[in-house]
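REVIEWER CHECKLIST
Item 1: Sequence provided? yes
Item 2: Single chain? yes
Item 3: Sequence as submitted:
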Amino acid sequence: MLHVLLHMAEQEGPTTSEVLAKAMQTNPVVIRRIMSGLRERGYVRSEKGHGGGWTLACDLSRLTLRDVHEALGEPALLAIGNRTEAPSCLVEQAVNAALGRAFEDAEAMLLERFASVTLAQLRADLRARLATHRHPCDLETVHGA
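Item 4: Structure as written out by the authors:
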């Protein structure tokens, strides 16, 4: 979703779900579903009809990675976690007890870091990269190649 938001930040006007979906190689319905959480928080807005689409609705210097994470329903941050196949297994219980706190600490650290990174910072980095890039970064074609 950060990818989508940064592309939107570089657009002059609204961007349709279809264009965003093409760039992200997914279905427009997926984009609309994901964007709904951001719209509820006031981070984006959508306009229907000809010339409509998604636009940013907030100051990127106030929108953090943590804000986006929360707006998306707080998806899992870590791809690993405790096993739960055999909850009565004493080995599984011992391992989960030892690792559980480490996973909680790692997630807390990530969320703290997310709260300190704004989309404005990401956009500034993107623009610096674009300034040294030889080819334009076209939303509709950059990811399809």
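Item 5: Key structural point noted by reviewer: The chain has six helices and two strands.
Item 6: Recommendation: ____
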